[in-house]
Design a protein that fits this description.
309 residues; alpha+beta; Ribosomal Protein S5, domain 2; Alpha-Beta Plaits; six-stranded mixed beta sheet; 9 helices; 23% strand
């Protein structure tokens, strides 16, 4: 039996913008998707992750396509029968890179079961092919975080290998992830932004330039350990994401709730339109305070830290 894991993630700066070549900052979190794979007489997929309502059903066809794409990328006959189990501590919430984490976990498990001896770089490339089933034109940031972990600077390169660089922070930082409970269609959200950007460049081009400036400033603040600055930049980033039409009433509510209970920064994370947001809450006391506020309001929550290795 082959086994594998992939990290969940939050994007601190750059979601949607990274698809268009703007650099971004992504952090793995200390929750993962695990997979087990063994050769079988019949293909069977057992997904036992905790998910938001409707997540499994809505993603089912995309999941099947994703696995088929990965088998092709690994030069394996797509009709090979495999028994696949998916679980782990990472919940199936939109915005946490759950699809990328599962793609990496499954790719690693297949690699081990079939003794393919793929490197991490090759696993990452296979998972990227799997991500196309979920995101259409993925940036590659989710599968990269899921494969390598840590805190990273990422820039998509459409003609060659993406640029990835580790970011070092002085110490782990507590964050709170709040889920709207709504499953988002990442592919439609990405396509929508691209369509609106093309139709209205006078509005969107300056916003994309602003997002790039924020990404560089955010990286610098993280490396200096200036979390107050990081939080302020996250707040600004959320305003830009609202401007490009990817936030939602529930996301805005969670962002405002987190800030009102002391979070020094809060923004949506991932594709938007539902899914999750992330709040920067340095210190266990502040983290617990925001967690309690979210639970009291009836939302699912994940308390974790930036930069899982």
């Amino acid at each position: 039996m082959g086994k594998g894991s992939g990290y969940g993630k939050v994007i601190l700066f750059g979601e949607h913008f990274v698809v268009h070549g703007v650099p971004g900052v992504v952090s793995a979190i200390d929750s993962s998707t695990d997979a087990e794979v063994k050769k079988s007489t019949n293909t069977n997929i057992r997904d036992e992750r905790k998910t938001s309502k409707g997540y499994g059903e809505e993603k089912r066809l995309q999941q099947i396509e994703s696995i088929e794409r990965m088998l092709v990328a690994m030069h394996i006959e797509p009709k090979l029968s495999l028994d696949i189990w998916i679980g782990g501590s990472l919940p199936g919430f939109s915005g946490l890179g759950a699809s990328a984490a599962s793609s990496v976990a499954i790719a690693r498990a297949i690699n081990e079961e079939l003794e393919l001896k793929l490197s991490n770089e090759e696993i990452n490339a296979v998972a990227y092919e799997g991500e196309k089933a979920y995101a259409g034109n993925p940036s590659g940031i989710d599968n990269t975080a899921a494969t390598y972990g840590g805190l990273m600077w990422f820039k998509k390169n459409p003609t060659s290998q993406d640029f990835v660089e580790k970011i070092c922070i002085k110490q782990p930082v507590e964050i709170v992830i709040g889920s709207t409970g709504k499953t988002a269609n990442t592919k439609l959200m990405v396509e929508g932004v691209a369509k609106r950007k093309k139709a209205d460049p006078k509005k969107y081009d300056p916003l994309f330039e602003q997002a790039e400036t924020l990404a560089f400033a955010g990286r610098s603040a993280l490396e200096m350990g200036d979390m107050e600055k990081v939080g302020a930049l996250m707040n600004e980033n959320h305003s830009i994401l609202q401007e490009i039409g990817v936030s939602s009433e529930e996301l805005d509510f969670l962002v405002e709730t987190a800030r009102s209970y002391g979070a020094i920064g809060a923004k949506l994370t991932g594709g938007g339109g539902g899914g999750c947001m992330v709040a920067l809450t340095p210190g266990k006391e502040l983290q617990d305070k925001v967690v309690t506020a979210f639970k009291t309001a009836g939302y699912e929550v994940l308390a974790t830290k930036l930069g899982a290795k």
